[in-house]
User: Which sequence fits this backbone?
């Protein structure tokens, strides 16, 4: 079973590596959205410093949503998904492996590039750790919740806009607590509570979301 | 004595029952709302701090209660549909969503009418307001998902799963928003106003709640009847009903 999961992860990573433009698009989207904010709200450094965590979080949320469509679409189109459903490995675990691979490809780059963007916003250096950690804990939750939405909207017309309508309200707690981590650290409270909550969300979503997404896939494909 | 719990789980038997129930609950709703509004607007005393403007709570609070209650009921029918694979449960869930969204919208709208004279602003990012807004988005998401799927069976199941995921999330959303709010602005605005409420106020509000509840039941059943007819249009009983309706109309 572990071998099957490893196989799924490597396969998805390989597919992503062969079509690396998809990955780059998500990352560029993230960078561009973040860069738009100073243009929209003005270059005042003090203002930028306060909004930086929120802006980075909202942009990461939108970028990860942008990538959700592709989580199951290609496998659905060429029949691989049906084979995975028929296979011996429980579908929930396969979905978990796919979500993990998807996060490695679309979530992790955002986490890694976020310090560079935080420099643009003149975020104090001591907040970088909290910000990066909050994104590292939070973006997998986004991918997990998003997997449910992606599975529900699989093969529907106008799936992209519909997906955002389904998933964004469910993202709210992650956004609040994720962006709150750096804010709390900035105000001297320390972001530990938020980081722990994000960790709890990750465990909760990691335990349940793949099964919900698997059930959604069965509904969509049957 | 054995009870056949599933007797009314078929659209054919439920359709006439739903019609009668809708009529009964509709009449009850009319009576309760009339009494409740009369008590609320004419009998209940003027609030010492807020003057007459507080009277909107007789609509606002019951609507807010119903908006949350209906989401849970919707998730209940959705879960029942997934568990027992009954057609009617999915129809009930889709029939509840618009009424739930309506109550959510009324709660937000009247809340902002209340907020202007009381707090001096139409909108604050208060925990309850924000989570109510997100609840409205959840209703919209449910309806949009069902509208996008052509196959009614798939629409029911997909909607059911979304409703269940939503109902797990609603408390998390509420508490995260509450926490975020206290973190950002401190206790600037509190919705918990007068600690003791005059008995007439409470009575009027409870009667209004029942009025809205009964209205919700009637509206949902009427909508469920339409959905039943639409989905079962190929069946004999629906054709018979349509013929009978045509005859009485002619």
Assistant:
């Amino acid at each position: 079973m572990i071998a099957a999961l490893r196989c799924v992860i490597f396969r998805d990573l390989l597919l992503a590596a062969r079509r690396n433009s998809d990955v780059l698009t998500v990352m560029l989207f993230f960078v561009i959205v973040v860069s738009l904010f100073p243009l929209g709200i003005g270059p005042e450094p003090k203002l930028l410093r306060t909004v930086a965590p929120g802006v980075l979080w909202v942009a990461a949320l939108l970028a990860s949503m942008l990538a959700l469509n592709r989580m199951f679409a290609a496998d659905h189109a060429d029949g691989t998904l049906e084979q995975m459903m028929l296979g011996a490995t429980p579908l929930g675990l396969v979905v978990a492996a796919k979500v993990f691979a998807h996060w490695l490809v679309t979530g992790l780059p955002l986490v890694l590039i976020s310090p560079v963007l935080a420099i643009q916003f003149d975020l104090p250096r001591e907040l970088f750790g909290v910000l990066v950690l909050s994104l590292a804990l939070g973006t997998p939750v986004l991918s997990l919740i998003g997997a449910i939405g992606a599975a529900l909207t699989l093969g529907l017309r106008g799936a992209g806009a519909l997906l955002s309508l389904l998933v964004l309200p469910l993202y709210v707690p992650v956004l609040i607590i994720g962006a709150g981590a750096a804010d709390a650290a900035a105000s001297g409270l320390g972001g530990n509570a938020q980081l722990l909550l994000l960790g709890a969300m990750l465990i909760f979503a990691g335990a349940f979301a793949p099964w919900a997404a698997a059930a959604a896939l069965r509904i969509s494909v049957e | 004595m054995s009870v056949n719990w599933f007797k009314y789980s078929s659209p054919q038997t439920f359709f006439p029952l739903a019609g009668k129930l809708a009529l009964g609950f509709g009449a009850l709703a009319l009576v309760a709302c009339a009494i409740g509004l009369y008590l609320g607007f004419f009998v209940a005393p003027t609030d010492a701090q807020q003057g007459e403007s507080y009277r909107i709570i007789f609509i606002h609070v019951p609507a807010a209660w119903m908006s949350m209650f209906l989401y849970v009921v919707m998730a209940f029918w959705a879960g029942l549909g997934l568990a027992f694979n009954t057609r009617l449960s999915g129809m009930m869930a889709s029939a509840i969503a618009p009424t739930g969204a309506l109550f959510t919208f009324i709660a937000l709208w009247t809340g902002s009418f209340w907020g202007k004279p009381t707090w001096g602003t139409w909108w604050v990012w208060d925990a309850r307001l924000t989570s109510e807004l997100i609840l409205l988005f959840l209703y919209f998401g449910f309806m949009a998902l069902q509208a996008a799927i052509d196959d009614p069976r798939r629409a029911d199941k997909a909607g059911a799963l979304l409703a269940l995921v939503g109902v797990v999330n609603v408390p998390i959303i509420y508490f995260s928003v509450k926490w975020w709010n206290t973190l950002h602005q401190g206790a600037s605005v509190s919705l918990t106003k007068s600690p003791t409420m005059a008995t007439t106020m409470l009575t009027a509000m409870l009667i209004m709640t029942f009025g809205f509840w009964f209205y919700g039941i009637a509206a949902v059943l009427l909508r469920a009847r339409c959905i039943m007819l639409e989905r079962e249009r190929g069946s004999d009983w629906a054709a018979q009903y349509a013929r009978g309706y045509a005859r009485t109309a002619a």
